[in-house]
Amino acid sequence: MKKAILVMLLASPFLFGCVVGGVRSDISDALPFCEDTPDHLDCVLNTNSGVVKELKPTEDAVPTLGLALSGGGSKAAPFAMGVVKRFVDEGWLFKTDYLSSVSGGSYTAFYLYYKAYRTILDDKPPIKAYPGLTRYFLDTRRQNDLTKKEPFVEFLSPDEVRHGWYSLAELPARLTPNNRTACYELPPYPVDDPNQADLSAPVWKYVQQASYQGWVECYQDLLRTGHAHMSKFVDGAGNRLAYAHQLGNTFSVMFAESLITAPVNWFANVAFDWKWRVSPTQYDYLYGILRTYAYMPEEGDVLPVSPYDDYFYQMTKCLDFSDLSIIYTRDPVSTEEKLGGYMPKWILQATANTGNVGLDLSPRHYDLGTDVFEISFDFFGSGRFGYVQGSPFLVGLTVPMAVLSSAAFADTAQRSIHVPRGVVNFGLQTINLRWGFDIPNYREPDSSRRLHSVLIWPFYYLDSPVTTEKGPTIHLSDGGQTGDNLGLVSLMRRGVKNIVAVAGENDYDTKSGALVLASLCSANYYLNVRGYTMDFDGDPMEPDSGAHQNYHLAERCTWDKNRSIYVHPDNPGSFKKLTPFAWKRRVWVGHVVPYTPGVGGQPPLLPKEQMADPSTVPKHLKDITVYYINSAMDQEEWQQVVDEWYPVESAGSEEPLKYQAVGQLGSPKVCKGVYPDKNARVQYSCPLIEYFHDTRTATEDGGHKWVFPQTSTAFTTYSNSVNLFRAYRDLGWLYAGYLPNASDDLRKVLLGDAKNPQPAGLSQLYNEQKPRYPKDTYACRGWNGGRSVQVAEPIPVAP
């Protein structure tokens, strides 16, 4: 024992210098409370009300509209992309006060806000044909009658004409300068007049506007260095394809690099508690997200782009949330010209836990009131640790690291796997798989982290309790682990009157063949303990006929005491079992109403000790309306649409194939891809109809199991395809078109003339005051969005 103590004393100078290796520790002292500091910057809001004091994006007392993008990895991201595309296409984005995102929804939000940031930063000239942000959401799905001759047809061979192509990912290699697929050779920056572009292939001038969405389509497989394939089932000639060997190579490399670094992880993060970020797969995942959603193809770029390019490395270190503030601080004229209006305020949701998640073996679900960690450009924090008014860069949270934290499912903090927590933690630590991100606890001084770094296992557990706000660090992980995988809590806490919830998550229980509505029920429990509940208009399995029986979530959601998480029961007594293949409500409308268990026919769901005190029921939750858009479909209805577009040919007939969507008999004669005017919002797209048709063929003739649109989240993360991405995106775009008809209130907001005003207070926060902990200009010298040579200065607000 004496020898061990002597070794510890001799090693203490080295260990003392380690601090907590993976945690930025610029906070020398615990942050003061805002009430105790005059400038109210970089301080903790001392409030127990649950209401965040922040710079509001609206002058209204009650925010009017919020958009919530759910988690679900690369399954949720394209579904969210379609809804966001609709909001951009229609101009609804600039009437939205808040945008919240979780996990995969944060991929899409990152894509949106980084494009807006670069548009302002690079002073990109407006394009008349594709104003504002629409240039980033344009895809090449055919937008006209396919019986008409396309302007680029003369450059295609007869076989290419018969097959058809809709994306840069399908651009014939022979039309590229180096005879490579378009996933490696994208066109230059879009211009108003394509003839002004220096193009080596004439066909590019007709598709160059789609380079941004084309890039995202190409690189859907986040954990692989190569690009995604067109399909995982058959090629254009009907030959079945298999890519198992390529996936095997990917996982073999990831597993090998994890095992090689495992000893370092055990020494630095198990024997000691230094929080070193030594998980190679965490970097693979992070840079995969950046390569897919944050790369902007520009003229002169050398392709292909490696996910480990210096561009992404610098972005990870230097892209600060306060940098994004320039999309809010520009004068109205410039913002309208470049973007189309003022953006919603972006809030990422992660899960906040104590630093020592390895000791947290509780199977209980997180508490939505305390453990949802919110991150925006002017504040961050949670109910447990308090909310900080200031830039998240203060604790090392750059935009990429916040996105990673929001999407870090493979982490020891997760409580979703039905395996004992101790086994999960041991297994993940053994193979060095820990994707979460540790930040300093801003309620503790840096000296506490230095002392903590000299403690060896198991003594450091005593210095970092797992059930309180104490401890030197805060561990952030996937926002969906709180139970709110929809991103509703941050919007409900602000009393946003109309919330569009984009549920692109994988919510399908394959054993029962039912949707469980776990996230929606979990958010409802958040309301229940505060005296409210959500009542939806009718059973989603029944058509919206006007007359309906309310669907009470307080009655349909049950509390699983073993997992402490809401699940949806299979109770066909008064309601049909929910399935993703008979979902008839493309926008399902729910109303937040007062809830008293056991009173007025309401079920006594909650134990008495969990019931809300009537005197503390928050008033801002009353009269919120949730517009729930789910990645589900009514197969019978879709079958009719597909049959209409793929007519059955009579025996012996041979219809001409030229200019049709796909090279097979029975192809649709007309593609109804993009609405011809703003009064026709519910038209289908060719890629979506064709994916449904191909899926039906694969299940009937190829022995495949039908899972779309509830494809596995894990599958889409490492083995997605261009066609699958496009189908989910277009499904979200289609369903969002029904929003104006969902209610009179929402119609007035979406179709009215009012737009978001310039947010108040930004001038004082970012131009008149300096943060206590400014960005390290030496480490980020030369970084300005990845293209300029100086760090951006704050942009003054017009008087």
From TrEMBL:
Any GO BP: glycerophospholipid catabolic process
Swiss-Prot/TrEMBL keywords: Signal
Keyword tRNA-binding listed: no
Span of the signal peptide: 1-17
InterPro entries referenced in this protein's UniProt entry, alphabetically: Acyl_Trfase/lysoPLipase (IPR016035)
GO cellular component terms listed in the entry, alphabetical order: cytosol
Gene3D superfamilies from the UniProt entry: Cytosolic phospholipase A2 catalytic domain
Transmembrane segments: none
Highest taxon of source: Bacteria
Gene Ontology MF term list: phospholipase A2 activity
PANTHER family: CYTOSOLIC PHOSPHOLIPASE A2, PATATIN FAMILY PROTEIN
Protein name: Patatin-like phospholipase
Record organism: Caballeronia calidae
Lineage summary: Bacteria, Pseudomonadati, Pseudomonadota, Betaproteobacteria, Burkholderiales
